[in-house]
Design a protein that fits this description.
The structure is a single chain. The protein is of the alpha+beta class. Helices cover 27% and strands 8% of the residues. The protein is built from 5 helices and 6 strands. It has helices at 2-18, 123-137, 184-197, 203-212, 217-220; strands spanning 56-57, 79-81, 84-86, 95-96, 147-150, 166-169. The chain is globular and about 40 Å long.
């Protein structure tokens, strides 16, 4: 008799699930509990839209930054697209700041007077991180010609000091050794920032485009 009632209960439970019950209502893990990224702070969509991979949310601006642990030496590998260097997505997948959202653009990255200078880690921190990250990527070039780059730039709401958002970016092809940092990615970041502040692209779309491939980010958002 008990087995009959148990079977009936299971049938009823299955019917309810077909009707739309969630895994959480059955005692399973919710998206956030299972480790699957969900919408970021204040409604920031970390998915970047349909087809985009989720972007991690970092700690955001800090009063005092500390040197962050970097990937193991030799564990990261550069890619090349259109002749330009790209990061290893396993080592540098990008991370956004919880302090910047679509709702507060006017008071953060789009405000007059600048936003990035007040949240940028000091060189005493990033200098050490750069050396460790260069070892992770096996970078052996001139350090003065390589930029310790925020994959999602600060002006696009990238996290200031999350190791997932920083990488040693080699100089562009044809760059004259000893002439310092001069990367084409910087101009792409500025154009994306302008588009976001003018309402021509959402913050999430710009972030997703640049973590996917900065060389095609403008074309992806029809801004080229």
């Amino acid at each position: 008799m008990r087995s009959a009632r148990r079977a009936a209960s299971l049938v009823l439970l299955a019917a309810l699930c077909v009707a739309g019950c969630s895994p959480g209502s059955l005692g399973g893990l919710s998206a956030s509990e299972s480790g699957t990224p969900v919408a970021g702070p204040s409604g920031t969509d970390t998915s970047g839209g349909a087809g985009g991979r989720a972007i991690a949310v970092g700690a955001g601006p800090q009063k005092k930054y500390t040197v962050q642990q970097q990937p193991a030496a030799g564990s990261c590998h550069y890619r090349r697209e259109h002749g330009e260097p790209l990061e290893d997505p396993k080592c540098t997948p990008g991370a956004i700041s919880p302090a910047v959202t679509q709702a507060n653009l006017a008071s953060t990255i789009c405000r007059k007077g600048g936003y990035t200078s007040g949240i940028r880690p000091s060189t005493s921190v990033t200098g050490k991180e750069k050396e460790l990250n260069a070892a992770a990527y096996g970078f052996t070039g001139r350090m003065g010609d390589a930029e310790y780059d925020h994959l999602i730039s600060l002006q696009l709401g990238g996290d200031p000091n999350d190791y997932r958002n920083l990488w040693v970016e080699p100089a562009d092809p044809g760059h004259r050794k000893g002439s310092g940092v001069n990367n084409k990615k910087d101009a792409v970041e500025t154009k994306l920032h302008t588009a976001v502040c003018k309402g021509q692209a959402t913050l999430a779309a710009a972030q997703q485009a640049i973590v996917t491939d900065w060389t095609t980010a403008l074309a992806t958002l029809h801004l080229a």
